[in-house]
Amino acid sequence: MNGKYIQLLITIIIPILLISGPILYMSTDIDFFNKEIEKSDVIDRLHVDKETAKSIANNVVLYFKNKEDINPGIVGSTAATHMEDVKSLRSLSLYIFYGLTVLVILLLITLILISNKMIPKSIFLGAMLTIGLTVVIFLLITFAFNSFWAGLHRIIFTNSLWQLDPSQDALVAVFSGRFFTDFLTKSIIISTVLSAILMVIGIALEFIRPKEKQDQVSWQFEKKEKQGKDKEDRSQQDFQW
User: What 3-state class would DSSP assign to 105?
Assistant: First the structure.
């Protein structure tokens, strides 16, 4: 495969991993859930009290981890059906994440064998693209969250079960718009930090690589110069004889 195509694939895959990874991690971070529940403006207190909210959050996390079934009695019957769709989507996303992780490792190994000078640029551009996408997502959730969230659900779900009523489905009273705004914001922060680290790595590799190349060229020049000097010395010796 051509090195430029490999470089392009790596650049595209890196943002997918850096954005989806934190989201998948955060989806089972019970400490984050509980901290959000403690905030007065996150859950709908008219329909769900704090203890019930924590029970719902714990049930959802354990459900995602395949440790217990979703409980319709506390999340709501429609919400329970919707959570089946959410879990299926999350499981598919995990498989894609792991598959792309293996793929990008293999592509990097291939690129090392073809031309390691492309690796720094691939990493740097992938990180830059990630930051650009996270900025767009941040602007959307800041200034047009409702439209963004509704549009996203219409794209990824084939039914309208995600349109829940807090009075009937306690799940939506816990996982409110404010909750998901905080959820996505923290995910974006993690993605941005990881992207910044990758950019530094890319820059460092770019500075190291030319130095190594320069040292190699210098070594080859010195070797040729020494060979030429040895040849000249032998010629002089032959002439004296």
Answer: helix
Tokens of 116: 């390691």
Tell me: the pLDDT tens digits for 188-208? Answer: 999 999 999 999 999 998 887
pTM for this predicted structure:
0.83
Q: What is the C-alpha separation between 7 and 122, in angstroms, rounded?
A: 5
Q: Please count the other Cβ atoms lying within 10 Å of the Cβ belonging to residue 43.
A: 28
Does residue 5 contact residue 68 with C-beta atoms inside 8 Å?
no
Non-local (6+) Cβ contacts of 90 within 8 A are: 24, 27, 64
Cα(136)–Cα(75) distance, rounded to whole angstroms? Answer: 32
User: Rounded to an integer, what distance in angstroms lies between the CA atom of residue 117 and that of residue 206?
Assistant: 8
SS3 100: helix
* Amino acid identity, position 103: L
The half-sphere exposure of 45 on its side-chain side, counting CA atoms within 13 A, is 8
Residues 6+ apart with CB under 8 A from 180: 141, 145, 149
